[in-house]
Amino acid sequence: xxxxxxxxxxxxxxxxxxxxxxxxxxxxxxxxxxxxxxxxxxxxxxxxxxxxxxxxxxxxxxxxxxxxxxxxxxxxxxxxxxxxxxxxxxxxxxxxxxxxxxxxxxxxxxxxxxxxxxxxxxxxxxxxxxxxxxxxxxxxxxxxxxxxxxxxxxxxxxxxxxxxxxxxxxxxxxxxxxxxxxxxxxxxxxxxxxxxxxxxxxxxx
Length: 205
Prior knowledge:
The chain is built from ten helices and three strands; from the N terminus they run E-E-E-H-H-H-H-H-H-H-H-H-H. Strand 2 and strand 3 form a beta hairpin. It has three domains: 2-102, Winged helix-like DNA-binding domain superfamily/Winged helix DNA-binding domain (Arc Repressor Mutant, subunit A), CATH 1.10.10.10; 106-150; 151-204, Arc Repressor Mutant, subunit A (Orthogonal Bundle). It has 205 residues and is mainly alpha-helical. It is elongated.
C-alpha cells in the first residue's frame, strides 16, 4: 500500500503516516526510522501490521513508564491506564512483561511497601488493607503471604491508637452506648476485626 502523506504530531510525538486508502498509521521515531518510511513508499499489509505492532509496543512502554515515574504502581493499574490509551490487549500484555523484566513493575514489592504504609501512616487494620489491595489488583497469592505475617499485637496497638483518637473526639458525647457504637463503627471502617475491636474497647473504656 502506497504512502501518500506524512505528518508529525507534536502532542503525541508520533509520525502520522497516511496511505492511499486514507488509513492512518501512528509510528514513533524509532520505528519510523527503522523502516525508512517516506512518501511514495509501498508497504505490504504484513509490513504495515508489523510496524504498527512494534510502534505500539514502544509507545505503550513510554506511556507506562511516564505513568509510574516517581511512584510505585501495580500491574493492574498500568493495564487500566494503557487500556484508557486504547492499546490492544496483546500490546499491553507484552509491555507489562517487559516492564516486569526490567523491574519497573513488582507487585510483591508494591504489596510489602503498601501494607507497611497503611499500617504505620494510616493506622488501618488487616481487613481494610486487604480490601485496598484487591482494588489495586494485587493477586491473593501475593498479599496473603504478607498479611499472614500481620501480627495481632501490631494490629491491636494500631487499633488502640485509633480508638483513643476517636474517644477524644467524642469527649462531649454523654450517651455511653452511642459513644461505644461510634468507636466500633470507626474501627470497623478502618478494617479492624471484631475480635480486635472488642479487646480495644476493654482497654480504653
